[in-house]
Amino acid sequence: MPERKPYGRSKAGVELTDEVLERMADEAEAGLDVSKLRRRPGRPAMGSGPAESFPVRLEPELRQALDERAAQDETTPSEIVREALRRYLKVS
Question: Looking at the domain assignment, is residue 42 inside a domain?
Answer without folding.
Answer: no
